[in-house]
Amino acid sequence: MEYHSIQELVTLAGEMPISDVVLKCESEISGETPDALKDRMLHHLQTMFQSIEAGMNPELKSNSGLVGGQASKLAQATDQGQIFSDPFLGHMEARALAVAECNASMGKIVAAPTAGSCGILPSALFTAQEKYGYSEKVLVNALFTAAGIGAVIADRASISGAEGGCQAECGTAAAMAAAALTQLRGGDAKACANAVAFTLMNMMGLVCDPLNGLVEIPCVYRNVSGAANAAIAADMALAGLVSVLSADDLIDAMGKVGRMMPESLRETGKGGCATCPISPA
Fold first, then answer.
1. What is the per-residue pLDDT across 221-275, written as a single tens digit (0 to 9) for each?
2. Which candidate among 216, 230, 235, 259 keeps its CA 20 to 30 Å from the CA of 242?
3. What is the three-class DSSP state of 129?
């Protein structure tokens, strides 16, 4: 069993969740048993959640001093009702920032699919579990669905900021998270595909322009917007909205857009936000 497109995933899944297809394919390719693969994915899940906790340290600072300690402020503002977002989205945003800040501060993270976009998927899963009480087993299944989406995008386009801009990193991570959230709330394979499509449509063209060549600014804050985008896309898919553009066509378009981006907007630190002066605190 193989898949090379989102549509193939949906077709193979039928009435099953996408995670079943991904798990079976991975088992056939790797030779590992499904139980062994689930154990490994559970370890990834637990590491993700540990990075959220580590990133919430208000004293955390990256070596450059540019980022760190901001996630705890956003979480506190959420708890105190100071922001527009409801607690679910507010905490998801704060946790996405926490993992990204943990990464920038040399902490342990899970690349999902990359280090620069590491906060989006963990924040979605942790916050969903907090609100709805999902078991680790259910979250592991959602991670397999996310992995399948990421694998298709990596195959058809790119998950590298240097190749395709931040749309390839945070865009892919958000698409993976959107599919995972949609499955968690009972959406079928088609709904997951629509969530992917809405996400990529909304994040198309996002450039990669790190300040001082570091995966810090604007990277960490794009994890926050990516997490919110994932939730928005999942909401639309769960409500029954259908994208008139297929996920596969959007993935291909994203790949083309990435290849058209000038070098200065693909992780070289020569354009976009990278050219802006640092404002005093």
1. 999 999 999 999 999 999 999 999 999 999 999 999 999 999 999 999 999 999 9
2. 259
3. helix
Mean pLDDT of 47-72: 97
Residue type, 141: N
Tokens encoding 4: 């090379």
Q: Which domain holds residue 239?
A: 6-271
Q: How many domains would you assign to the chain?
A: 1
The count of other CB atoms within 10 Å of the CB of residue 17 is: 20
Question: 0.85 exceeded by the pTM?
Answer: yes
Give the bridge partners for 115, in sequence order: none
Q: Which range among 22-31, 144-153, 271-280 shows the weakest confidence by mean pLDDT?
A: 271-280
Question: Does 235 fall in a domain?
Answer: yes
User: Is position 281 within any domain?
Assistant: no
> Does any domain span residue 277?
no
Q: Tokens at residue 238, please?
A: 């769960």
On whether residue 279 sits in a domain, the answer given is: no
Distance CA 196, CA 147 (A): 12
| Local structure of residue 280 (DSSP, 8 states) | P
With vertex at residue 231, the alpha carbon angle to CA 230 and CA 234, rounded to the nearest 5 degrees, is 85
Residue type, 229: N
Query: 279: pLDDT confidence band, cut at 50, 70 and 90?
Result: confident
DSSP letters spanning 45-114: HHHHHHHHHHHT-TT---TTSSS-SHHHHHHHHHHTT-SSS-HHHHHHHHHHHHHHHHHHTT-----SS-
- Locate tokens 């999942």: which residue? 234
